[in-house]
């Protein structure tokens, strides 16, 4: 029950205001303590080249399923996963297994991302989408990552790469720390003002990096805290001051875009915070010639 309560609070950061609390409760009721079924044969490879004997047992398992429809590098976020794996390994060593199941439409694109990110941890290229067919995972990407116990039963749900609160929850469970319900201060919400949620970069040479700034103003009565910022593509980066913003203050989101080739682009930046409108969707658009 304690996991259930805290996970509702953690996952609510990812929910639009029109998503009601009971929808999250229904999702957790359906999946918590449910056993994840794995295909009889799962072939794990390193960058799609070498098949490896990969032992999937362990005290805990973190399994993430990615259908890779859309921007592959954005969904995989492999550089962030590597950092998280290093943190977990420093805490629990080899007792936590990471199970990556990718169900790509185009294998070549996945292999390219694996090589570019120098990701040498074993992954399963699940061409037949067997894992998802067996389990019928939730359709939303943020609910397609699970923390399992040694019996493959789900004890937490959510993507620790996209949600810092879920990350903290996973680490607390893995370390065996006592979980307590978040205090009232963490549930305080505020209001955010922004001059424009859309900025056009116009036409420019595709080899030249472009930079713009979105300014978020805390127009409410409580401190503004940004939990995470996600982009729809690896070609878009965001930097900002991580310090909480007091009422009346503001924070600048410095967005940089570097095209990989000539293209007309329309990219989104998703800001997860304690504002009433969270998540806040920002957009940049232009033509890289």
UniProtKB/TrEMBL annotation:
Protein name, UniProt field: DUF1573 domain-containing protein
Gene3D superfamilies, alphabetized: Glutaredoxin, Immunoglobulins
Coiled coil segments of this chain: none
PANTHER family for this protein: LIPOPROTEIN-RELATED, SIGNAL PEPTIDE PROTEIN
